[in-house]
Amino acid sequence: MRAGFPLAAALRGVVALALPLLLGLWTGHMVAAVFAGIGALWGVGQDSSSPYRLRMQRLLAVGLAGALGLLIGELALLSGHTAPVAGCLVATAVFAGLISLCGPIRSVAGMHVLLGTIVGSGVPVPGPWWQPPLALLSGVLLVTVLSTSPWLWRRHRIETDSVRAVYRAAAGALAAVGTPHAEAARRSMTLALNDAHDVMAPDLATATRHRPEDPDTRRLLDALRLAVRLGEVVSALVWEGRPLPPGVADLPLQMAGRLLPTGKSASAGHGLVPAEKAASARDRRSPAVRALLELCETADAEAGADVILSLPARPLPGRTVRLRYAVLLAACVLVAYISALLLHGPRGYWLPMTVAFIYKPDFGPVLRRAVHRCVGTVIGVAAIGAVAALTGNTPCALIGTVAVFGALMAVGVRHHYAVATTGLTGIVFVLVDLLGDHRPLYGTRILDTILAAAIVLVANFVVWPDSAGSWAAAQTDAALLAVRRYRDLAPNATPAQRQTLRRAAYRRLADARRAAAQAHAEPVPAKRRLPDWEATIVAAEQVCDAVTARTLADTAHSAGDHAPGSP
Hints:
By secondary structure, this protein is an all-alpha fold. The chain has 3 domains: 7-152 and 315-463, no CATH class; 157-304, no CATH class; 467-558. The protein has 24 helices and no strands. The chain has helices spanning 7-27, 30-46, 52-78, 82-100, 104-122, 131-148, 157-176, 182-199, 201-207, 215-240, 246-249, 251-259, 273-278, 281-284, 287-297, 319-344, 350-358, 366-391, 395-415, 417-434, 442-463, 467-489, 495-521, 533-561. The chain is globular and about 80 Å long.
């Protein structure tokens, strides 16, 4: 489901990009202001709606890596020769490629240390050598402050929303039981659980060492524990396939009202009488329905106390894959740098910078990224050309243009890469103009972007055509292994072990589906057909659902055998 219009992010983009330039215009230190604007530009590009701690980590990685790269590039440029600059770019690209596939924070840091090196080695800057890196870091810190300051008055809002989304998805899955949409609804609940685990990751790490002192954090962890158990019950009901009364489908929302109260619903959900009446005696013969009713009756800390929330880390590409990507990235950057030298001389930074932006397979399909980059550049060039013709490039008009394009970029980061590229293109034109480079580069930027995209596509699809397919196959194998472990170990596992095995299996399947979709989005030779990973993943999900239903039934049967008065 797409998020709504990110108004707060758009406002952050306006302030973060316009404020440094206004201060530079006021104080006369425009060079430092431009580099602060570059830092703000990169910060807005990595701003997100993730929890505030994760935002801070990501943005600090952007600022520190970008400033370090800028310093490295400046030192290489001081040599006055192209060979040290080329060697510096290649070495930085290898380093960036080696760390980029090792997780989201390292990926962002790797890309921005490379971008900083490209800008530092391609833009001669007057003044002290230390000024541009500090200015760039200050621009990123401005975005960090703007993005994380709402923590002061809405500390747990993002975490609460992510956990509440699991209960909403569970209600949707229960409503879809017995219909053709049941499996898709169950997958939505799985994705919501995955997201909640990711959002709550810092709190989960703390909870493994000691019980959190903050009552709100404890409440969220208890709600997530119960949501994990709820996911098991819903999966079993989806497998059974018998339509449920509407009252039963509403039970997750009543649970959320009790566990995650808001100003409007703090007193909601205290009674489950309507749901109990809706669940007839025939319905309550289902172990899953009985388990659901029991969860609702005991929706408190004890109801999920036996659930272990930690999950095994996601598998990362192997060392060979990372090394191959690093070498190809370095080769692409070197080819782009040489091409820029031949076409434009020593100030041609746009080509290698575009390569660094496009060749990010962990950010999505490379072909789609390349196409969106070209489309966004063409639109951005046309837009900034029209603005320049209308305003005459006066400083105030340029700063106003940056503010508008900053908001556009912030929206594009969340909705469409081509839109984000349109905003970035217009901002870079203005920043370069404020540095004193007034050359008409409209057509040049379009051609450079197309050339950079061609370099990346050749490397990705001619030199390494099976990169996405190999990763999808590896992810699918990892998912099948997790499913087999769940199938074989669940019957004799403790409740905590069973929940961990089940969540790991469903999470691996979701990761495999994402990798398969990315592989199918990339072009492949006509003679080479990709496996039907989706069919394999669907079959594995059905195995998981069956194991879940069987285990829940066996648990209910064992509980009945040991109940007081049982034979």
